[in-house]
C-alpha cells in the first residue's frame, strides 16, 4: 500500500472566508471515514496542522452513519452509494459543503491491494473539487491512527466482524497479518468465533462432538427450534455481520462454564495474539532485545465488549507475555476520527503550513 | 426425511404400447437424477420390478449433464432451470417422452429439511403427468443406493465439493452427519481441504504459520503472482466448487512431502471417518458387540481420486479400526443410476407387480 506522506502541497482555498463565516474554522474542514464490515462512519472536523497540539476532545462538526462499504461483501454499487450518502450527511450536519473540504481520508475494509485502493480513491475523487486531497487506507490504518493521534507507529489489532493486525515501524515500513476474510481463516474475528460456535452446535447434534450449552442459547437467540434449521438460516443470507452477531451468545455460554465455548474464545485470543506477534516480529517493533516499547491499539467489538470473559484482556495478556514493552491502548475516539487525524498528518508538511 | 416405501400403486400406462415400439421396454422408463454441488446428472433406464435380478450392467437409454441444482448455491431459478433442461435432454436421447416415465427419483444436495424436499418435489411434479411418481431425496441417499443396488441399508460417505455421511438401519431409521456446508465446518470436504490450504498459504505469507509448498503450487495453478492476490481471487466468485477444485494441488504437495499439506489431508480423513462413526453408532449398524457387518459406500472425487496419497484408503482404514465388520464399497455405477434403482425400489410393492 502506498504511503502518501509526500502529499503536502495544500492549495489556498478560495472559499476560506466563507468557511470562517459558516463554521468558525477558517482553515477548512477534514472528513474522516471508517468503513467497517457492518457500518460506515463519517466525521467532519476542523483542520489543524499536524504537529500542533490538537484540542482534546477534537470538535466533531458533523457525524453520519451508513451501511457496509466493503465491495467484497455488498458489491461495488452499494458500496459507492453508501459512501456518497454518508459524506453528504456529515457535511450537511456540519454546516459545511464540499468547497470547505481540504482533505478526505477513508479507512475501508477490503482494501487489500493497490488496485482496490485506486478504485475507491477514484469513486471519492469524483465527488470533490480537484484540489481536495483524497487518501484511501485499509481500515486498520485509520484505527491505528485513532489510538496514536494520527501517528503511524506501532501495531493495531481490529477484531469486529472481521479481524486484522497492521503495523508501522518508525521508518514507515508496514506489515499486516490476518484480514483475509472468513474463507481464509480469520478465526479470531467475530465471524470466526460465531462460525466455530455454529459448527459446535451441528457437531453436537449429529454425534460428532460433545453436547454444548451453545445449542439452546443460539437456537433461542435465532428463534429456531432445531439445529437442522441452522443450515437454512446460515445460508439464507451470506452477510458476515449477521453470523458475527452471535459472539455475545458465545461469551455468555463461556461465562456460564460451557467448555466448548471457552475453548472457542481461548483459540480466538490465541489467534488474535498470533496476528499481532507476526506483525511485531516482522517490523522489529520490540527492538533487538525484545523489550522495546511500542503501542498496540485494540479496536472492535470482540476486544472491547466489557464482558466478564474479556477477550481483549486475554489477547493483551498473551501479547505482553511475548513483548513486555507493548503498551496496549484502547482509543478514546472512534476510527473515523483517526482517519481525520491521518488526513491532517498527510496534508501537513512541517514549516509549510501557517 | 420421509421414506416413500409405501408409494407402490403403479397406474397402468396408457402409452405402454408406444413405449414398447419406441424403446423396446414395455414397462416404461425411470429417470434417476444426481444433483451435486458441481453438476447434475440425469439417466433414463428401463423399469424393472425391484426384487427381480437387475441386468448387469443396467442399460442406460439416455444420459445428460447440467450445472449445479443446489438452490443454496445457485438460487431457485437457476436450480429449477437446470433440472428441467437435464430431464428433457435425457428423455430425448432415450427416444422416450414424458408419457413413458413411470417414476423419477432425484438426489439433490442441499435437501436438508422436509420443506426443501417439498419445494423440489413441486418443481418436478409440474413437469410430468399426475400419475408419475416423484421422489426427492438427499443426494447422499441416492449415492448409498448406487452402492447397494437400491437397498437402503448401511452408510454412505460422500466427499466431493461438499461432504456428508448418511445411513439407514434395517428398520428404515436414518441418521446423518456433516453435510452442513462450509460455514458449518465440513472440513473433510473438497471445499474444506482447499480452504485450509488457502489459509495455510496466507498464514505462511503474513508470518503466522510455517512456509509451505502450497504457496508456489497454488499460485501457479491459479496464475497469481502473490499470496496477497489470493484474497481478491477467493472472494471474486463465491462458488464452493471453484475453491474445492484445488484439492489435487493439496494432494500433490502432500505426496511431495509437504508437512502442512499432509496434516490437512490427515485431518480431513479423520473428520470424514468421524462422520461415518457418528452415523454408525447412532444407528447401531455395527451390532451390539461392534463387529457386525454393514456396507459403507464411498462416493466422490475426494475419496476416489486414485492418487498415491489416497484419502479414501485412509478413511477406510480409520473406519475399519473402529468397525472391523464395515465393508467398504466403491460403486460401479454413478449416483444417478442409484437414484433410478431407488425409484424402482419405491415403485415396487412385492407380489403386486408382474
Automatic annotation (TrEMBL), chains A, B:
Domain ATPase BadF/BadG/BcrA/BcrD type: 31-343
UniProt cross-references to Pfam families, sorted A to Z: BcrAD_BadFG
Disordered as annotated region, ranges: 1-21
Position of the signal peptide: none
SUPFAM superfamilies found in the cross-reference section: Actin-like ATPase domain
Gene Ontology MF terms in the entry: N-acetylglucosamine kinase activity
Record-linked Gene3D superfamilies: 3.30.420.40
E.C. numbers: 2.7.1.59
Similarity annotation: Belongs to the eukaryotic-type N-acetylglucosamine kinase family.
Protein name: N-acetyl-D-glucosamine kinase
Species of origin: Brassica carinata (Ethiopian mustard)
Amino acid at each position: 500500500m502506498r504511503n502518501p506522506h509526500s502529499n503536502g502541497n495544500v492549495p489556498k482555498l478560495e472559499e476560506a472566508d466563507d468557511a470562517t463565516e459558516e463554521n468558525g474554522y477558517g482553515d477548512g474542514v477534514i472528513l474522516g471515514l471508517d468503513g467497517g464490515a457492518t457500518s460506515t462512519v463519517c466525521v467532519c472536523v476542523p483542520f489543524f496542522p499536524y504537529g500542533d497540539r490538537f484540542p482534546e476532545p477534537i470538535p466533531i462538526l458533523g457525524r453520519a452513519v451508513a451501511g457496509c462499504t466493503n465491495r467484497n461483501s455488498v458489491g461495488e454499487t452499494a458500496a459507492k452509494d453508501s459512501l456518497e450518502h454518508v459524506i453528504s450527511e456529515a457535511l450537511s450536519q456540519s454546516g459545511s459543503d464540499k468547497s470547505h473540504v481540504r482533505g478526505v481520508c477513508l479507512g475501508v475494509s477490503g482494501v487489500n491491494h493497490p488496485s482496490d485502493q485506486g478504485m475507491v480513491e477514484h469513486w471519492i475523487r469524483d465527488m470533490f473539487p480537484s484540489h481536495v486531497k483524497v487518501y484511501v487506507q485499509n481500515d486498520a490504518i485509520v484505527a491505528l491512527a485513532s489510538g496514536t493521534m494520527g501517528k503511524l507507529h506501532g501495531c493495531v489489532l481490529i477484531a469486529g466482524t472481521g479481524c486484522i493486525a497492521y503495523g508501522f515501524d518508525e521508518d514507515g515500513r508496514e506489515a499486516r497479518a490476518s484480514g483475509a476474510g472468513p474463507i481464509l481463516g480469520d478465526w479470531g474475528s467475530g465471524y470466526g468465533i460465531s462460525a466455530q460456535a455454529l459448527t459446535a452446535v451441528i457437531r453436537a447434534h449429529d454425534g460428532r462432538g460433545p453436547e454444548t450449552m451453545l445449542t439452546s442459547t443460539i437456537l433461542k437467540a435465532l428463534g429456531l427450534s432445531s439445529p437442522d434449521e441452522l443450515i437454512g438460516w446460515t445460508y439464507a443470507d451470506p452477510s458476515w455481520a449477521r453470523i458475527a452477531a452471535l459472539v455475545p451468545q458465545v461469551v455468555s455460554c463461556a461465562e456460564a462454564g460451557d467448555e466448548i465455548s471457552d475453548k472457542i474464545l481461548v483459540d480466538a485470543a490465541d489467534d488474535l495474539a498470533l496476528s499481532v506477534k507476526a506483525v511485531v516480529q516482522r517490523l522489529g517493533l520490540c527492538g533487538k532485545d525484545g523489550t522495546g516499547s511500542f503501542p498496540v491499539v485494540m479496536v472492535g467489538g470482540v476486544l472491547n465488549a466489557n464482558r466478564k470473559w474479556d477477550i481483549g484482556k486475554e489477547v493483551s495478556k498473551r501479547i505482553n507475555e511475548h513483548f513486555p514493552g507493548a503498551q496496549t491502548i484502547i482509543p478514546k475516539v472512534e476510527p473515523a476520527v483517526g482517519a481525520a487525524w491521518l488526513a491532517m498528518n498527510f496534508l501537513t508538511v512541517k514549516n509549510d503550513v501557517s
